[in-house]
């Protein structure tokens, strides 16, 4: 029997109770951050030797060198060729759909830059360039994520990134063939079987064996998320994509077994994953809870699910679906399922969610694998200001300023005036030299 926390939005201290559900245990958070900081500092100083030590310790390997942890292209190709036909076809279909979506995104999101000319011949614009080299983190501690290989590498390649360096831990040295096959399909350039904060450090600082990258993207556990936060500035990062989350807002019209399984689907990722149901119908909440208890024993990862739902799960009774949408905006979940009749009316009221799944048939799991949009999404309420991983994460923009001689006469006077105002003589001088 799982005891899931029950909240009622009419309770006086409801907001505080909800905040407590969403918060991570502060002491745990600090301990993880300290551990990540110490690992990063060590990798920065000792390079490969530190990466090797932590990899052998945390992933229970007996590797002799970091070079020995690189997987050659031949091995990626062989993994692809070894797949059973149905699995290979599914992987290819997922890759094709993810690529199609991101190609559309590239076209629609202003990837070509722009220029325009002013009347005096001055040209202004913006140039968009892909990053040269990116590191993609593919999680691998508690589960293997071939789908995350596709979700990270395909948008990078669509953006035009020249070199994609993938890191993925292989606990006890067990390589996942589907992960390697996905790397082959997605065109990953180099793969190292390392993970955790040490992999983030290696990509951020570079080591004798692992090339320094310009940006690190991809999801991971709390150690990976803490390490990414800490290396931001030395390299770019995409977002904080930590332990998975699902918020289901339901009007009570979906089969309770479906919703229970949807809650399991994210809980099974990690003990720290979070699954929340928000519904105006107390009877329906009770039916989902009964279904959870009915279905749990058949789940191979039932202990992970149990811990996640017990420690971080919640079922929230609200006044109505309007209030459910307000709470969805507060929670700003990684995944929001609007499991309701006429879901669009509720989606219109939601501003903060990494991805929205509308209607009874859009299970979150379809988005995880093959719908097409990216499954690397902001967690821990960062959907208030972050977006899904996309082609735009692998591009940067440069401003273009090409001033004509005529333009220099007008702009030069404005700039010089403001430069004198700031007390910056050389700025004024360089503008004034170009005046006739
Ligand atoms: N938000 C997203 O888009 C998304 C997508 C897929 C997965 N996820 C999440 O990614 C996470 C994957 O986690 P995972 O653990 O399976 O794999 P992981 O690869 O993120 O982490 C494994 C690594 O963590 C490090 N580690 C483990 N225990 C440690 C300790 N005590 N001290 C220091 N380092 C330690 C080890 O180096 C290990 O190699 C899950 O939380 C899952 O929910 C998120
Ligand atoms: N739900 C994860 C993102 O939070 C992605 C994933 C990959 N495989 C299964 N699920
Ligand atoms: Zn998932």
Automatic annotation (TrEMBL):
Q: What does the record give as cofactor?
A: Zn(2+)
Q: Which Gene3D superfamilies match?
A: 1.20.5.1300, Nitrogenase molybdenum iron protein domain
One term of GO molecular function = NAD binding
Question: Entry's PANTHER family?
Answer: HISTIDINE BIOSYNTHESIS TRIFUNCTIONAL PROTEIN, HISTIDINOL DEHYDROGENASE HDH
| Textual note on the cofactor | Binds 1 zinc ion per subunit.
Give the catalytic activity: L-histidinol + 2 NAD(+) + H2O = L-histidine + 2 NADH + 3 H(+)
Give the EC number: 1.1.1.23
Instruction: Tell me, in a sentence or two, what this protein's role is.
Output: Catalyzes the sequential NAD-dependent oxidations of L-histidinol to L-histidinaldehyde and then to L-histidine.
Which pathway or pathways does this protein act in? Amino-acid biosynthesis; L-histidine biosynthesis; L-histidine from 5-phospho-alpha-D-ribose 1-diphosphate: step 9/9
> Where does the record locate the signal sequence feature?
none
The record's Gene Ontology cellular component field reads: cytosol
Q: InterPro entries per the record?
A: Ald_DH/histidinol_DH, Histidinol_DH_CS, Histidinol_DH_monofunct, Hstdl_DH
Q: Identify the HAMAP family for this entry.
A: HisD
**Which annotated residues bind Zn(2+)?**
266, 269, 368, 427
Q: Which domain of life is it from?
A: Bacteria
Positions annotated to bind substrate: 244, 266, 269, 335, 368, 422, 427
One GO term under biological process is: L-histidine biosynthetic process
Spell out the protein name for this chain. Answer: Histidinol dehydrogenase
Residues annotated as catalytic: 334-335
**Family (UniProt):** Belongs to the histidinol dehydrogenase family.
The first-level EC class reads: oxidoreductase
Q: Keywords on this record? A: Amino-acid biosynthesis, Histidine biosynthesis, Metal-binding, NAD, Oxidoreductase, Zinc
Q: Where does NAD(+) bind?
A: 137, 198, 221
């Amino acid at each position: 029997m799982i005891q899931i926390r029950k909240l009622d939005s009419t309770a006086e201290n409801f907001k505080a109770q909800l905040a407590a559900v969403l918060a991570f245990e502060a002491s745990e958070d600090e301990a993880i951050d300290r551990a990540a900081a110490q690992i990063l500092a060590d990798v920065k100083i000792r390079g490969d030797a530190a990466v090797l030590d932590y990899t052998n310790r945390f992933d229970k390997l007996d590797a002799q060198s970091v070079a020995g942890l690189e997987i050659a292209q031949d091995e990626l190709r062989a993994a692809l060729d070894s797949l059973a036909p149905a699995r290979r076809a599914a992987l290819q279909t997922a890759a094709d759909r993810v690529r199609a979506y991101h190609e559309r995104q590239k076209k629609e999101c202003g990837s070509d830059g722009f220029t325009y000319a002013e009347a005096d011949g001055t040209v202004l614009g913006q140039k968009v360039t892909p990053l040269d080299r990116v590191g993609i983190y593919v999680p691998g501690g508690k589960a293997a994520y071939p789908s995350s290989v596709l979700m990270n590498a395909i948008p990078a390649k669509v953006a035009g990134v020249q070199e994609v360096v993938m890191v993925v831990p292989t606990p006890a040295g067990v390589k996942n063939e589907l992960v390697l096959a996905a790397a082959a399909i997605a065109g990953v350039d180099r793969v190292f079987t390392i993970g955790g904060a040490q992999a983030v450090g290696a990509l951020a600082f570079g080591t004798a064996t692992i090339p320094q990258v310009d940006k690190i993207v991809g999801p991971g556990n709390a150690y990976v998320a803490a390490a990414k936060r800490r290396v931001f500035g030395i390299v770019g990062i995409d977002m904080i994509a930590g332990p998975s989350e699902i918020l289901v807002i339901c009007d009570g019209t979906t089969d309770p077994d479906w919703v229970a399984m949807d809650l399991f689907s994210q809980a099974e990722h990690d003990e720290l994953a979070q699954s929340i149901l928000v519904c105006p119908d107390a009877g329906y909440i009770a039916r989902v809870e009964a279904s959870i208890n009915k279905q749990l024993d058949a789940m191979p990862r039932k202990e992970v699910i149990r811990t996640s739902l017990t420690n971080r799960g919640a079922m929230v009774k609200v006044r109505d679906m309007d209030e459910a949408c307000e709470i969805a905006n507060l929670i700003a979940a990684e995944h929001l399922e609007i499991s309701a009749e006429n879901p669009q009316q509720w989606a219109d009221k939601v501003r903060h969610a990494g991805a929205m799944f509308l209607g009874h048939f859009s299970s979150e799991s379809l988005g995880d694998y093959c719908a097409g949009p990216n499954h690397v999404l902001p967690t821990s309420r960062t959907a208030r200001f972050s977006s899904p991983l996309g082609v735009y994460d692998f591009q940067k923009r440069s401003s273009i300023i090409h001033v004509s001689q005529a333009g220099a006469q007008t702009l030069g006077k404005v700039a010089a005036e403001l430069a004198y105002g700031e007390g910056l003589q050389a700025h004024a001088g360089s503008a004034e030299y170009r005046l006739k």
